């Protein structure tokens, strides 16, 4: 009707325009006002083209409509131009003029809205009075109303007046005032109200916090027996209520009736979010750490097990957590950027959202929510909810809380609630089995269980299977909601912890696609010919034309700012993102006035993240925009350069880099509206392959682009090498910094992924790394060859060398390659080895170039001086600036050489370990030997030879022991040799008395060799457990439990050795103790060792016994994992059993005693028997041979541990009881130092005894030499 072609006369068209404007203003929506502006401009242009009288509108009618808009504005923006509204003599004004004036007023209102929204997000409006509405169950006065009857629809509650934040729990309610004080009412059992008792409270009563704190947030459980968590303004947590399962976090399960501060691991942490589940609790700290505690059943705590925790415990598998929600038996966490959602715990009914019902014991990403920006999550009894930045609500689990229309529905994955899709949701809340949602226009929806009227429908019909608007709240500006177990609350105080999203504001703001569609249409239609002197129709002047374009850009910038502030994501633009982006860059390339250019730059700056295409399209666009030849960066148009710069900057975001390489889902995928948005598994796998192909292309493009700049720089340097010219500026000689930064970021992510997933055999990542690094090394080889040739031709001219340094460092063969080469050292050799030939090819041109550098030789000489004189600083001062500038290149050559050596296995890997080394490696890393040696190997040999010689010879006098040792070591030697010197003699007798009283052994007393072994074992245990002082002072009738364990270990060794006296291991005459027989179990696998003899008959017998004993390493590890005190006794059992079982040579046992005869069971040497026949002699030797051999080798190992190995309890990692530590604190270090001093002073020689065995001596020295390595911390 407004168009000339409609057939209506001018008065009819005018009336139609006025009527449409009145309807648009009456509707109060920006969409209808923009529609009127479009119609008005089109009608004016059509009239001008038809040479008819311009379209008109009544002046007074338009001013009246304009006044309605101005009445909504609280302030005016001065930087907008004021369009003069011209009034004709007949009281009319032109449609185009009126459209521009209306557009100006809309922009003013929008800018005012942007300003007010920012202030609302930064601070709450203190001047407003909060009103609270309640409904649902009031059985325990949780609604603070006098009656106990349920309230079926919202009712104004004066008891919660002026509450800033409210939390509805299990039959109780908590309200936080603006000053941070907390009031509570409702059910009081188990102290859940925190008022000091278990009584119900009919009216809100103030809680007391000690120490006094201002409370910012509260979370109260919706089930179990009720407990509550409160976060202070400083980030501390208080808890109270039922303490079962340790869910209060105080280290116990006690009920807490007053608020109590949680300490432990959270002490000093700033907590930003808490959630109280049914039987567990969770909190999130400011640094993104998630802590959980309480019952651990079903894995709800996320610690990979079902164990309960009564103190906050860090969930180690995830980081950068922003919020958490606890349900009945499951937990949901959201990342700080809202891009990732994890869930774990009980998976029954699909409430974890993983597409299955299995339990999950550690955080697992909900794949179906990848690509969405999640603003909030909630967890109920059997369902979960998630709110997206686009105002959509997803639900999963089972029951009516899914809002699907049926209470029997089960959703194993997140499903969009279609009933809420017609509006924008800004907040959600979950009770036990009902849900609430708040829309952007302050309406409240409810669904789920309605047995107590908690859905606010005016009845108790249940369930409410689809979201329905809560009745009785029309026209009330509800800002916040909360759902308890069976009651609900809504109030008008604006939130302090939630960003306000201005989805809609009357006349000026509509964050929806239609708004951006109208603005795109205006820009597309009126940007053409913006530089023409004659403006397009219907504008009368160029100024009017430019002003309209400027207004379009300002309104677009305002909406993009509001969308960015609200975190809505690019979905709000719909299909308008690409055309708007193209229009803006087209304006950049046009010769536009400064005001429009500034508006375009502002719009791109504000909305870059929203206007940029999805990640894949962005990468393809980057590939097309980057120069594909040696042309200069300046050859691109202004718009192209700006677009390229924005894309390069955006791609450097860490999450985008990971998405480019396929390591995470893209974060900027357009949010979908149905389940079909989520791809299936097959398409996901193909997408990963596509991502790697795209990343490979991008890596090649970036490398080629950097190469273009390097090629051009080389050409200019070669051309001007004989001319005296200043260095070219970095902007002219080097590629844009964003290009190198993006390439470097891609390298870091790729290398880090290959390092962290080296065992997962990620062939795609490794193949991509190999392809790109080979290309990079080939490029670097050519660059170094060309550099060396240039230096030769320039006769090492100083200016050329300086310029060449800048070119090389900025090229891909410079800083970029350095990062890659250094990172290769960290990767497994199996990944780096395929690059070996390429690294070798690079070394020759690199070495050739370095030899030409004038400072290279000087630098190497000075580095050698540094190694010899590390304390001197003079060499460093003498290094010239030229030499310093090339250090990175020389260091890279050495790193490449080192990498080559690593690949060849000649530097880090070394020769293949011998059988003896492999046999000893386990023990050299064990707890028993990790504390190192006390003396050097030569001194140790002398001491051991002397001690074992005296022990096997039956010597009981220590006065002939030629070496000076510490007092404790001397006392231990007394015990080992069985002298009558105190306190060793008393310690040995006490053990024997205790063993006899417990009938641990029968018929073995008086066996000298066995007693000698027992004494040595006792001495070892007393030394390495640190119980020697306690054994000396223990005058009680009954020894301490720790000493009893020492005695038990000694007699286990005796029992094992006695078992060797009978080939069938018949222990009928030996009564073993009742403790676990780990050592006996180990020894049962030991067969008689093979023996060598000069006689042919003995060799024949040995053939049948030549099979090597099999040792059970797994059993050793089991022993090491036990927690019985002292641990070293368990380790020692394994050590002695292994050494005794693995030895096969026994001849020198008899050589050691100075005779060829074998010793008897008492240890004395007998003359050869003549009365026994050879057959009887052979049988007797076979019965005693293994026993004697094992005894002697246990003595040898014990001597080694007594004299050579530093006490285990002196190690930093050794844990002991405080009382024992106090006893030793005063004298342990002094004794250790005095012992070392005496050993160093002992230079006297002694006659060495005959060697025990040649092979044993070699093995022993090898073990000692390996033990002396610095990595074991040995002391010489």
TrEMBL record:
Residues 128-316 form the RCC1-like domain. Residues 1172-1181, 1246-1257 have a biased composition (Basic and acidic residues). Residues 718-738, 1082-1107, 1149-1181, 1221-1276 are annotated as: Disordered. The keyword Nucleotide-binding does not apply. Keywords: Repeat. Residues 723-734, 1093-1104, 1153-1164, 1221-1232, 1258-1270 have a biased composition (Polar residues). SUPFAM superfamilies: RCC1/BLIP-II. The keyword Repeat applies. RCC repeats lie at residues 130-179, 180-234, 235-287, 288-337, 339-390, 391-441, 442-494. This is RCC1-like domain-containing protein.
